[in-house]
User: Fold this.
Amino acid sequence: MQSFFQTKEDVLVLTSAGTGGLEAAIVNTLSPGDKVLAVSIGVFGDRFAEIARVYGADVATLQFPMGSAADPDEVRRALAADPSIMAVLVTQNETSTGVTNDMKALCSVVKEYDKLLLVDAISGLAAIDLPVDAWNCDVVVSGSQKGWMIPPGLVMVSVSKRAWDAVAKAQMPRFYFDFTSAKKYLQRGQTPFTPAVSVFFALDAALSLMAREGLASIFARHEKIGQYTRDGVRSLGLVLFADPRYASNAVTAVKVPDGVDGKALTKVMREQWGIVLAGGQASLEGKIFRIGHLGYVSTEDIDDVISALPQALRAAGSGQTEAEKTTGS
Ligand SMILES: *Cc1c(COP(=O)(O)O)cnc(C)c1O
Assistant:
């Protein structure tokens, strides 16, 4: 796991959904009342902030519009304005909008102000480059069902030396997700509680495949399939949701065209073509659909999606664009 996180620090593997890993990052490094800057560009950024709030952190949220990336200069201004901020929460790859943040720039701003940096890399790690040590990320969370290509059930969490210092002082309550206990057991090759054993076997197999391919090739493959998907979507005349400069190579969000029912579209794709697309979450429900292309997904899979979409769009809507409707054609 250390080589895939590009870290020499500890990587703990906990049995949980991804969200449990985010909760673990918060409760192990913070105390109630601690000032936290949550940088959010979508649903998962909001969730990270909410977890910190629930555990009593004093959370200031720096919100960017859905579809855009976080602006490092605005993060810098927020950190300069409030020296009491102790930690920064950032999402590497915002799965709800198909946007990948400029992590290199964001990490360097956080480093400049010497804050603890907690990263939700659940859907980006092992697919999109994130050199954890080189970019000074303190706690980085990933999840088995995303780039690792295996069933859900495990979260992987890297913990820097600086994060361990924070763990020693952190007062938020924790039991199941206690890093200190996880590390103690790890040293004996064990876990504090019953692990998701079957998923560990799957992870072992996935890591063998990934090690054979190599990190650089894995990142290049995701860049290629991301571009391939965006090109395919645009070739159908559809409009991409994300700011093209920050479009994710793990997931592509597409605007649901006028006159098409987004829910019906994903249903038709699933039932008639056996293709599972994701809908939009929260305020984006019905407005976008998402094509996942991280991990074990080939360009042939994307070809299937692109060739099924025109018929599915017709089945899920009037088949008319707004322009066609107004001209009556
Ligand atoms: C999938 C995902 C999560 C949540 O993972 P769960 O396993 O559903 O809890 C959190 N953040 C991001 C960016 C994700 O893609």
Summary: The mean pLDDT is 96. Residues 17-19, 44, 91, 93, 95, 120, 122-123, 143, 146, 152 surround pyridoxal-5'-phosphate (CB under 6 Å). Residues 64 and 70 are 6 Å apart (CA to CA).
